[in-house]
Amino acid sequence: MNELIKMVADRTGVGDDKAKTAVDTVVGYLKQKLPQPISGQIDQVVGGGSGSGGGLGGAIGDVMGETRK
Asked: How many Å apart are CA 42 and CA 30, to the nearest integer?
């Protein structure tokens, strides 16, 4: 999740504390609104769990046009 917080802070110019609040808010919202099989995996993905190699931060970077290193 630190990768995602850093990405939000860098892109918006806000401090890490505000970026963390924003990320926590969005993650909480998604977990509430998505069906249980998906929402149950959010913490794993945000934490950089298995998958495409980058967790949610990497996936958001892909959507925003960033390339993975």
From this structure: 8
Q: Give the amino acid at 42.
A: I
Burial string for 13-36 (b: 16+ CB within 10 Å, else e) reads eeeeeebbebbeeebeeebeeeee
Query: From the centroid of its chain, how far is CA 11?
Result: 13
Rounded CA-CA distance 55/47 in Å is 6
Per residue in 8-67, pLDDT tens? 999 999 999 999 999 999 999 999 999 988 888 888 888 755 444 455 555 555 555 554
- Please report which residue ranges of 1-69 form alpha helices under DSSP H: 2-12, 16-33, 36-39, 42-46, 55-63
